[in-house]
Backbone:
């Protein structure tokens, strides 16, 4: 679906009045139903009132292109199928998600007007790695000493306690450690 009007135009005429009464509380014509369902202020209010699980479901539907079959949703949310049905019922009652009576045969379709709002929500939840400033972490400061001790041990360079390796030992270490 490219727009809310396209989605509403595919609903049979006898269902438009019933949907408008259920969702908006008054019978209205098809064109006005599409306008009222796509009202950004109304949609923002609905999104703010949703639970985290319902927002997560909406983001999942958005990531799937705005529509998904029951099998895909059930597989993604398999441990909690009753919760999935409840969430879809709430979203359907708000006029955000549509399906043929939760028959589990028809696709679940996300209202196209909510896509820009979900893109904003997605940007809040998932940052773009290109936007982050990556800083190189500071080492513990003893890494060089540990590397030197490991090189001494592996190279079997011997020193007297409290003394440094001989000149040849230092040359060997510089070659090894770079």
Residues:
């Amino acid at each position: 679906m490219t727009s809310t009007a396209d989605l509403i135009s595919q609903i049979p005429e006898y269902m438009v009045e019933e949907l408008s009464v259920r969702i908006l509380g008054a019978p209205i014509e098809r064109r006005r139903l599409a306008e009222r369902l796509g009202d950004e202020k109304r949609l923002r209010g609905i999104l703010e009132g949703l639970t985290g699980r319902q927002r997560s479901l909406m983001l999942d539907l958005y990531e799937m292109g705005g529509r998904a079959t029951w099998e895909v949703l059930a597989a993604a949310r398999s441990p909690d199928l009753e919760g999935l049905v409840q969430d879809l019922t709430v979203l359907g009652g708000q006029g955000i998600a549509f399906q043929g009576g939760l028959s589990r045969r028809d696709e679940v379709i996300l209202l196209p007007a909510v896509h820009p709002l979900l893109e904003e929500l997605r940007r809040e939840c998932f940052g773009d790695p290109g936007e982050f400033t990556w800083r190189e972490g500071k080492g513990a400061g003893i890494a060089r000493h540990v590397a030197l001790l490991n090189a001494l041990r592996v190279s079997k360079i011997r020193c007297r306690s409290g003394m440094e390796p001989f000149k040849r030992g230092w040359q060997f270490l510089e070659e090894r450690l770079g």
The CA atoms of residues 36 and 42 lie 8 Å apart.
